[in-house]
Amino acid sequence: MHEPSIDHYRYLLKDTIRQRIDFSQTDQQQGVEAPPLEKPFPADARRLDLSPVGQWTGIGKIDMATAIADRQSCRSFKPEPLTRDELSFLLWATQGVRGQSEQGRVLRTVPSAGNRHALETYLAIQRVDGIEPGIYRYLPLEHQLLHLFEVDEMPRKLTEATLEQPFVGRAAVVFVWTTIPYRMEWRYGLAAHKVIALDAGHVCQNLYLACETIGAGTCAVAAYHQQLMDRLVDVDGADEFVVYLAPVGKV
């Protein structure tokens, strides 16, 4: 019996998408207003300014070929902290705003299907100069950190939530990406779930490459306890939930 060819699988995939997803029935096509591209926050919330884009000090320059060649997953970190400039750079590199298009759309540093950007970036900060430990959320439109709350025994809880991977609990900061699925479903319906996963990959790869410029390392982590991670960053697990995370530290 012959194995199906790759062309056969491609045909089935295209056929399945065409038959099962009616893009004419999405909320976008029905005239529903688009959800916001950034999760709202109270006007009086505590926010921290990050270093202005492009005005970072101590950020090394490295050519792209070297960054790609040297990129690797790191599970051992030095105890030294990151600087605020370094954290600001990593956040901008992974979800930052780089400008606006002629149509007024916000342009980010990473690609996203339909420019929908269904991810939110939470940070479990343990060692960053000038920033108190705790859980924060990155506000890309303002380029600020939103302080959420403090966590007792954060290293233990990070390790427990990642199925006893202790290197996560030893990181200077852990990037935790959640998704708000409707932000993508509004345009793509059921196809949204595939492109959300692709978007997360784009973001994490940028983190790997950006870490190379500051003498830091990271390791993509998809093995975690869903409820514990959702609880750690205080999301409901339904309308918003954790999809990916990556600890960062000096190496």
Short description:
This protein is an alpha+beta fold and 251 residues long. The protein is built from eight helices and nine strands. The termini are far apart.
CA gyration radius, whole angstroms: 19 Å
Strand order, main sheet: write it out. 1-6-5-4-7-9-8
CATH-level-2 architecture: 3-Layer(aba) Sandwich
Q: What would you give as the CATH superfamily?
A: NADH Oxidase
Report the top-level CATH class.
Answer: Alpha Beta
Mean pLDDT: 91
Please, how many domains?
1
Described by strand count, sense and barrel closure, the largest sheet is: 7 strands, antiparallel
Ranges with pLDDT <50 over ≥5 residues?
A: none
Task: Kindly describe this structure.
The structure is a single chain. This protein has 251 residues and is an alpha+beta fold. The chain has one domain (6-37, 47-250): 3-Layer(aba) Sandwich (NADH Oxidase), CATH 3.40.109.10. It has eight helices and nine strands. The strands form two sheets. The protein has a seven-stranded antiparallel beta sheet, sandwiched between helices. Strands 2-3 form a two-stranded antiparallel sheet. It is globular and about 55 Å long. The model has no long low-confidence stretch (mean pLDDT 91).
Task: Annotate the secondary structure layout.
Layout: H1 6-20, E1 47-49, H2 64-70, H3 84-95, E2 97-100, E3 106-108, E4 119-125, E5 134-139, E6 144-149, H4 154-161, H5 166-169, E7 173-179, H6 181-188, H7 192-212, E8 216-218, H8 226-232, E9 241-250
Antiparallel strand pairs: 1-6, 2-3, 4-5, 4-7, 5-6, 7-9, 8-9
Helix pairs in contact: 3-7, 4-8, 6-7
